[in-house]
Each structure stands twice: as structure tokens, then as C-alpha cells.
Write a structure and sequence with these properties.
elongated; 469 residues; Outer membrane efflux proteins (OEP); two-stranded parallel ribbon; 12% strand; 10 helices; alpha+beta
Length: 469
């Protein structure tokens, strides 16, 4: 008979593992628990497999494809929305720059009703009521080339904001793809953990049967029980990671709750060999970061020209016409409005002489912005070259790692099969068997990670060059 101390320790271990798994996934069991072997005088207790650990996770409320996720990501990403609104504001700035060539028109009007003469107060006006209205227009004829400079600056700002929007589009796509691929990878790792738990269950059954027959030691059975418990913990953690990844994907596409990705084998199609030199030359012209930096340089230089135009005189022409009447429609003495018309035209020249160094300060600030924009453009080109080198290397390494990982999985599967048979025949130890099982689990995990590392590296490269590959 088993000792009371060993029975209590085994019962506590089984209840502790089952309680941990149930706390992580409190769903009712949907698959039967494996039957424990009949206790014998020498058999170690076998912990039962928690139903919560073997149960599939609850079905998510929503599943999206990659194309749907990308569309929703661009629609709801707040940084991308802000970049889109910046383009809208820049468009209005271009319209405002064109409007500087048009005259400004304004209208005015007034009406006055005076009180009637009071007793003892002499009447000072025979016509106490009057009204007037007028219209005026003003046109700038010459502004020292400032309007043209402002127009070029507005167009450059628009192009800069459009480039920033394009860069944010690809940055949003990259973040969405990372969330999408992470959700798929963590879901696959749940399957890896389930397969590892099933193998651990088989090892535990084999060890318990050998212990019952007296063909192994109690230490082997306890080692198999510990391995089984670790496999349960791995599955619980894998499911927690999958739920976290689904929540992050939901946030990336602006959805509530949990969102799972729809697997698509077409996504894993590898790129043909890339001409890195041609790709670098193409990226110089299409990379959103470089395009935005170039537009920023043009905008800064145009702003500098516009500020220098403050030294030139301005010439403007104006015209105005007024109509004045002597009574109001609501007055008691109304006999019909009679308006007299007056008009005037003007031509004015303004020569700036001194304004407290305001012009000089504006020019210095604009020149500093232009110098800074040039430095940022150079840095953007250097950063693009460095990032391309890093990403191309990561893409090649990830592609090679996939092939190595597949071979590693095949080798680990064969090694585990041989070790299981050798252990059954008594030709190897439990340590060899559990080591082979751990190696296979690590190989399967590495294969999943290497496949999705390749997809993320490809998405990063697309974000750098500004187009799909």
C-alpha cells in the first residue's frame, strides 16, 4: 500500500494543477479526462488532465482577414486620421494662397433714429432720422513677390502633408500586420502547447504503466508528472498570450472585444530574389520618409523667400461707394427713402522702413528652419539606407531560419519516436525521453516564430520602400 504521506502529496499536486488551469479558463469541460491507471502497491499517483486545460478556447465574436484588418486600421488609427486632417487643412492653405490674388470685398450699413424735440429744448436737426450703406473693394497690385512665395510654400506644405500621410499609411499597415500576425502566431502556439500536453500525457501513462509492472522507478513517474504539469502551464500561458494578441488586434482595427485573424497560406509566399541595389535606388524616389523630408525642405525655403519679401513695398488699389438717406421706413414722417450716392477710388503705396527687427527675426527663424530641413533630409536618406540594410538581412535570415526550423522539427519528431520506443524497451532513461520531448516542443515553437518573423520582416520592408512587394 502507498504511504499516507505520498498519497497526500500526490493529491495536493493534482488538485493544485487542476485549480490553476480552471482559474485561467473556467469553461465547463467538453472533452473527457484520460482514465488514470488503477493504483497498485508500487504505482505513483498520476495527476488527472484538467478539462479546462484540454478544452478549446471560446470562439471569438469576430474574425477578420488581413485585407479587412488593413482597411479598418487605416480608418480608425488616430495618428493616421490626424495626418489625413492635416492634408485637408493644407488644401485650404493652398486655396487661401490663391485667394490673395483676388480683391477683398466688404459691405457696411447703418441706421439712426433720433428722438423728437422735447419741451424747452430747441430742435437742432430738421432731419432726425438717417440711414446709409456702402460697398468697398481693395486689391493688392504688388506685394514684393510675397504672394508667389506664399503660394509655393502652401503647395510645398500640401505635398509634405501628403507624404506624411503616405508614410503614416505604411506605418499603420505595418502596425496592423504585426498585430495580425502576432494573433495568428499565438493561436498556432496554442496548438503547439496542446500537442505538447498530449505527448506529456502519453509519457505519463507509459511511465505509470511501467511503474505498475515494476519496470521503472518512482522517480521516473514523478519526473513525468512534473513534465505533465509544466505542459499544462505552457498551454495556459499560450492561451493567455492568444487572448492578449486578439485584444491588441481589436485595438489596432478600432474594434471592441476580441478579434482573431483568418489564416491564409497565400500570405507566406516567399519573395523572389531581390535586387538590393535596384531596390535602394527605387526607395530613394518612393520612400515616404524621404519624400516627406524633401517636401519639408521646399516648404522651408519657400517660407524663407516669403519672409524676405517683407522688405519690398506694397501697392494696392481701392474703390468705395456710399448711399445716404434722410429718413427711415418705420419713422412717422416717412415719405419714401431718397438716397444720395458718393464714390471714391484710391491708390496706396506702403514702404516698410523699420518695424523693430520683426522682419529680421522672422528671416532668421525661417532660415534656421530651412537649414534644419536640409539636415533632416540627409538624415532621412541615411536612415533609409541603414534600415534597408537591416531589413533585407533580417528577411534573408528569416527565410533561411524557416528551412532550418522545418528540418529541426522533423529531426526532433524522429528522435522522440526513437526515445519513446527505447524507453519502453528499457534501453534509455526518462531523462532522455523528456529531453527529446522538450526539444520537439522548442522546435515546433521555433518554426511558428520563424514563419511569422519572415512576414513581419517583409511588411517592414514594404513600409520602408512605400509600396507592396
Amino acid at each position: 500500500m502507498m504511504t499516507h504521506s505520498h498519497s497526500l502529496v500526490a493529491l495536493a499536486l493534482a488538485l493544485g494543477l487542476a485549480g490553476t488551469a480552471t482559474a485561467q479558463n473556467p469553461q465547463p469541460a467538453t472533452s473527457p479526462q484520460p482514465a488514470a491507471p488503477q493504483p497498485t502497491p508500487t504505482a505513483a499517483p498520476q495527476p488527472s488532465m484538467p478539462a479546462a486545460a484540454m478544452q478549446q478556447p471560446a470562439t471569438t465574436q469576430r474574425r477578420v482577414t488581413l485585407s479587412e484588418a488593413l482597411q479598418l486600421g487605416r480608418q480608425y488609427n488616430p495618428t493616421r486620421v490626424q495626418a489625413q486632417q492635416n492634408v485637408r487643412v493644407a488644401n485650404m492653405g493652398v486655396m487661401q494662397a490663391w485667394g490673395a490674388y483676388l480683391p477683398t470685398v466688404s459691405g457696411s450699413g447703418s441706421a439712426t433714429h433720433n428722438s423728437s424735440p422735447q419741451f424747452g429744448v430747441s430742435q437742432t436737426s430738421a432731419n432726425p432720422d438717417n440711414s446709409s450703406f456702402g460697398i468697398s473693394a481693395n486689391l493688392n497690385l504688388f506685394t514684393g513677390f510675397q504672394r508667389g512665395a506664399n503660394q509655393r510654400a502652401a503647395n510645398a506644405t500640401l505635398e509634405s502633408n501628403r507624404a506624411a500621410l503616405l508614410q503614416q499609411d505604411y506605418a499603420t499597415d505595418l502596425a496592423t500586420k504585426q498585430s495580425f500576425f502576432n494573433a495568428l502566431a499565438t493561436q498556432e502556439l496554442v496548438g503547439v502547447a496542446q500537442a505538447n500536453l498530449a505527448r506529456s500525457d502519453q509519457q505519463l501513462k507509459l511511465t505509470s504503466e511501467k511503474l505498475r509492472l515494476g519496470a521503472t522507478t518512482r522517480s521516473d513517474s514523478l519526473s513525468a508528472s512534473v513534465d505533465f504539469g509544466n505542459a499544462q502551464v505552457q498551454l495556459i500561458q499560450a492561451r493567455a498570450n492568444a487572448l492578449t494578441a486578439q485584444a491588441n488586434l481589436a485595438r489596432a482595427i478600432g474594434a471592441e472585444g476580441m478579434v482573431a485573424g483568418v489564416p491564409d497560406t497565400a500570405l507566406e509566399t516567399r519573395l523572389a530574389s531581390l535586387d538590393s541595389a535596384a531596390l535602394r535606388r527605387e526607395a530613394e524616389a518612393t520612400a515616404p520618409s524621404v519624400v516627406q523630408a524633401q517636401a519639408a525642405v521646399v516648404a522651408a525655403q519657400s517660407s524663407l523667400t516669403a519672409n524676405r519679401a517683407q522688405y519690398f513695398p506694397t501697392l494696392s488699389a481701392g474703390a468705395r461707394e456710399n448711399w445716404t438717406g434722410k429718413s427711415l421706413p418705420w419713422s412717422g414722417s416717412y415719405t419714401g427713402l431718397k438716397y444720395t450716392s458718393t464714390w471714391s477710388v484710391s491708390l496706396s503705396l506702403t514702404v516698410p522702413i523699420f518695424n523693430g527687427f520683426v522682419r529680421e527675426a522672422n528671416i532668421v527663424n525661417a532660415d534656421a528652419n530651412a537649414v534644419t530641413a536640409q539636415a533632416k533630409l540627409r538624415d532621412a536618406r541615411l536612415a533609409l539606407d541603414a534600415n534597408l540594410t537591416q531589413t533585407l538581412t533580417a528577411l534573408d535570415a528569416a527565410a533561411a531560419q524557416i528551412d532550418v526550423a522545418r528540418t529541426t522539427v522533423a529531426a526532433a519528431q524522429e528522435s522522440l519516436r526513437m526515445q519513446r520506443e527505447r524507453y519502453r524497451l528499457g534501453a534509455s532513461t526518462i531523462v532522455d525521453l523528456l529531453t527529446a520531448e522538450t526539444t520537439l516542443n522548442q522546435a515546433e515553437t521555433g518554426l511558428v516564430q520563424s514563419r511569422y518573423n519572415y512576414l513581419i520582416a517583409r511588411a517592414t520592408l514594404e513600409a520602408l520602400v512605400g509600396h507592396a512587394l
